[in-house]
């Protein structure tokens, strides 16, 4: 991976890298969209599913990494949706997720496919369904701890999003 998406300082915190600061466009915080509380915009069909019990969406370090990662692929909070399944308002039901968000590309960030009653999907691999393709990968914390996981993620994630 030649692109630096997110660095990690000695404390494990994400360090901003050179380039545009995508946080200048604020996200719509915690939309209560009927059956789900989510962040961003669901109209483009790109959905990120995570499970962070200690944060509304991401830890601060993971949010910084997420913004840089999607920004490198010309995505912003205005054209992706993020749902945290740890939020008690959000059903942990894949069928309801599909009906509400109507995604075409779903990224599981540290969420085990079995927890959504999906077939096994290896890490940094995807499964194509009738309507959407599901990409299963590590949480950002797992990638912070293991640079090899970050490299494997980035290589496949670019192909998934651009494919």
From TrEMBL:
<protein>
    <submittedName>
        <fullName>Uncharacterized protein</fullName>
    </submittedName>
</protein>
<feature type="region of interest" description="Disordered">
    <location>
        <begin position="15"/>
        <end position="35"/>
    </location>
</feature>
């Amino acid at each position: 991976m030649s692109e630096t998406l997110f660095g990690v300082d000695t404390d494990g915190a994400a360090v901003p890298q050179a380039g545009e600061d995508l946080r200048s466009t604020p996200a719509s915080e915690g939309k209560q969209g009927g059956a789900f509380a989510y962040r961003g915009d669901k109209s483009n069909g790109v959905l990120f599913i995570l499970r962070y019990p200690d944060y509304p969406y991401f830890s601060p370090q993971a949010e910084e990494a997420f913004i840089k990662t999607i920004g490198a692929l010309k995505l912003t909070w205005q054209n992706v949706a993020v749902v945290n399944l740890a939020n008690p308002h959000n059903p942990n039901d894949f069928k309801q997720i599909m009906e509400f968000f109507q995604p075409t590309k779903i990224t599981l960030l540290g969420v085990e496919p079995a927890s959504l009653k999906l077939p096994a999907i290896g890490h940094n691999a995807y499964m194509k369904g009738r309507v959407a393709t599901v990409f299963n990968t590590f949480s950002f914390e797992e990638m912070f701890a293991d640079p090899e996981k970050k490299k494997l993620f980035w290589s496949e994630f670019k192909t998934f999003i651009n494919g």
